[in-house]
Specification:
Largest sheet: 3 strands, mixed
Strand order of the largest sheet: 1-2-3
Shape: elongated
Number of helices: 7
Protein name: Phage tail-like protein
Structural class: mainly alpha
CATH class of one domain: Alpha Beta
Number of strands: 3
InterPro entries: Tail_protein_I, Unchr_phage_tail-like
Organism: Krasilnikovia cinnamomea
Pfam families: Tail_P2_I
Order of helices and strands: HHHHHHEEHE
Radius of gyration: 29 Å
Strand content: 5-15%
Helix content: 40-55%
Distance between the termini: 82 Å
Length: about 180
């Protein structure tokens, strides 16, 4: 009969390995260490947005400052975390706001504001705290959600004017198939 020993128990001196209490104690440590090693070995997969578990994706999103809805499709949540991470250095800028809103809604977004970086000899435009955000549509988000996002991304004191070009329309009537000719109904 062969007795299999684990990696930690196998390193015990022979005298210690024959003691059943010490062997059991070290075996318990080995089991704990194995689960820790498994978690460490898989950490690279957990921070990869394409492979991360839903829980880790939620954690990464929160860490990056984006609130993910568990009801959103998994690929949408993965895409949002990926985009927020990619645009982290651009957060709060016109480019960053446009790119994040485009990722969140699938719409074309244009941000107009008077902000910018001006040199000593540049003409600085008058202060205007209104930021105009033009969008084709809000995707699956409500206007309230878009405004909440904008308030969290724009500088303190900025006011937002949201211009959504196409509003979702409620369906009216009943859809009927087109008569292919010949039939009455």
């Amino acid at each position: 009969m062969t007795v299999t020993t684990g990696w930690l128990v196998g390193q015990l001196p022979r005298v210690m390995a024959t003691d059943p209490v010490l062997r059991g104690f070290v075996s318990a440590f080995e089991e704990v260490a194995d689960t820790v090693r498994e978690r460490i070995d898989s950490v690279e997969h957990q921070i990869d947005t394409g492979l991360a578990s839903p829980e880790m994706l939620q954690y990464l999103g929160a860490w990056l400052g984006v609130e993910l809805e568990p009801t959103d499709p998994a690929e949408y949540r993965r895409s949002m975390v990926r985009e927020v991470g990619r645009l982290l250095g651009w957060r709060g800028t016109r480019f960053g706001v446009e790119a994040l809103l485009e990722a969140a809604t699938g719409a074309r977004v244009t941000v107009l504001d008077a902000g910018g970086v001006y040199g000593r000899n540049d003409t600085v435009p008058p202060t205007d705290p209104v930021v105009v955000v033009q969008m084709d549509h809000t995707g699956h988000l409500t206007e309230r959600q878009v405004l909440g996002f904008l308030q969290s991304e724009l500088p303190l004191g900025a006011r937002v004017r949201l211009d959504v070009r196409f509003q979702p329309q409620t369906a009216r009537g009943r859809a009927r198939p087109v008569d292919g000719g010949g039939g009455n109904g």
